[in-house]
Amino acid sequence: TPYLEKYRSQFHFTPPANWMNDPNGMVYWDGEYHLFYQYHPGGTTWGPMHWGHAVSTDLTHWEHLPMALKPDRHGQIFSGCAVVDWEDSSGFFAGSPGLVAVFTHADQHPDTDRPRQRQSLAYSLDKGRTWTMYDGNPVLSHEQLTDFRDPKVFWYAPNRTWVMVIAAGDRVLFYTSPDLKAWAYASEFGAEEGSHDGVWECPDLIELPVDGQADRTRWVLIVSIGDRPECPEGSRTQYFVGSFDGSRFTSDAQPEAVLWLDHGRDNYAGVTWSDANRADGGRLFIGWMSNWKYANLTPTDSWRSAMTLPRVMSLKTGPSGVRLVQEPVSGLQKLRREERQWENVPVTPGINILSSEKSGTFEIECELELGSATEVGLKLRQSESEETVVGYNASAQTLFIDRTRSGETGFHAAFGCRHEAPLEAREGRLKLRLFVDHASVEVFANDGELVMTDQIFPDPGSTGLELYALGGEARLISLRLYELNSVYS
Ligand code: FRU
């Protein structure tokens, strides 16, 4: 049976076979959500990059489509975006709207033999099914820069222009264009801001309402940073909240405390969907659920990597300022099969009220009152020898995932780890929403204020569940456990 291999995600997007990394070209068009992705069709490790392709109407069930973009005389196809060219500014569509992909062509510089990264276009006249390379490619190059990649483009209505944000080593650059073909340099951001633990990659710039108020918006600049051997976290994604005037991004906070989009180890290179307008003003996001530190080594056979769950991004004012909050897309609720429910139960050290539950693919929504417990949490994918712990340390006020005993961890020394992030309880209470699949756990804490996404590789037989408290008694306000159907069933 397809998609039943060991560790194959049952409700996360995976390529049918072979290697996948970054999500690319996400765009909503004519009733379909498109997802392209960095793809090496010739093997299960990173290699010559193509764009794989899938579409969905609910962001949960995906239909695989033939390869969208293949290497050509300008090189491999690195990461990039796709936009709806509503007014046919590009002239590719004889006056109608159509889809344009803007991506990095990567090859060797003919004179210096160093890597060269230039930006190119492709367009589709048939709902993204086939793509034509623009004969004027590349449309944007930079003589001085070796790292110059991952263009993300959006239409800035006040100036009636396209804006591109693109990664350039230790910063991002902004360009503007009337037609997607001719690009003019506008500004740069980041040399002095944020985390520089790795090379900057895959930026995105989006405008979001604050606290749901459409007339009060801030701009969010998302920047992924690459792995560096000396940083245990590997590759991760940061963001900045600020303003944008059509050519320049300014961060609200100076100096800037680093804001992490996800405090887990496996959410990288994520960006948002173009043209997926939502009534609530939120933006749809998806990330690559891996980490360059060990991405090529994870223990799957015929394919490698999954995407995170798609999430809705919004902005909320918190005690330390305006922050991103994330919520899994509502389409996932269709997968809920069986529900069990607990309410108002003490959580006593040594007693596990979930001891008769068993599941390998599930969702949990729960609210806990910490009481006198020093630590409280859930153990998942449990057996005699394995468990993944999602816990809250009440005195340190940190949420953690401990995957040191989560299953197969030996493929890289940094994988078997425990990592944590600050999270304040609200009036002594903690809310957790968890999604557990065959090879991952995603935690949305306190209504998505803090998110942790981690891969795990437990034995298929490790399906035990435990709700635990240490050092004192906690109280379960409520817990709902949903068995989740596979998207393949
Ligand atoms: C991020 C990244 C991008 C690049 C792509 C190559 O993971 O390194 O910067 O375009 O992957 O596959």
The percent range for strand residues is over 45%
The strands making up the biggest β-sheet line up spatially as 23-33-24-29-30-31
**Bound compounds:** beta-D-fructofuranose
Gyration radius, to the nearest Å?
22 Å
Any descriptors?
489 residues, mainly beta, 6-stranded antiparallel sheet, 33 strands, 0% helix, binds beta-D-fructofuranose
What is the secondary structure topology, with strand pairs?
Layout: E1 18-29, E2 32-40, E3 50-56, E4 63-69, E5 76-85, E6 98-108, E7 115-124, E8 132-133, E9 149-156, E10 161-167, E11 172-177, E12 184-189, E13 200-210, E14 213-225, E15 236-244, E16 249-251, E17 259-260, E18 268-272, E19 283-288, E20 303-304, E21 311-318, E22 321-328, E23 336-347, E24 362-369, E25 375-382, E26 388-393, E27 398-402, E28 418-422, E29 429-437, E30 440-445, E31 450-455, E32 464-470, E33 474-484
Parallel strand pairs: 1-20
Antiparallel strand pairs: 1-2, 2-3, 3-4, 5-6, 6-7, 7-8, 9-10, 10-11, 11-12, 13-14, 14-15, 15-16, 15-17, 18-19, 19-21, 21-22, 23-33, 24-29, 24-33, 25-26, 25-32, 26-27, 27-28, 29-30, 30-31
The chain binds beta-D-fructofuranose.
Beta-D-fructofuranose is lined by residues 21-22, 38, 49, 78-79, 104, 149-150, 201-202, 269.
Descriptive notes:
The protein is an all-beta fold. The chain is built from no helices and 33 strands. It has strands spanning 18-29, 32-40, 50-56, 63-69, 76-85, 98-108, 115-124, 132-133, 149-156, 161-167, 172-177, 184-189, 200-210, 213-225, 236-244, 249-251, 259-260, 268-272, 283-288, 303-304, 311-318, 321-328, 336-347, 362-369, 375-382, 388-393, 398-402, 418-422, 429-437, 440-445, 450-455, 464-470, 474-484. It has a six-stranded antiparallel β-sheet, with no helix packed on it. A five-stranded mixed β-sheet has the order 4-3-2-1-20, with no helix packed on it. Strands 13, 14, 15, 16 and 17 form a five-stranded antiparallel β-sheet that branches. The chain is globular, with a radius of gyration of 22 Å. The termini are close together. Beta-D-fructofuranose is lined by residues 21-22, 38, 49, 78-79, 104, 149-150, 201-202, 269.
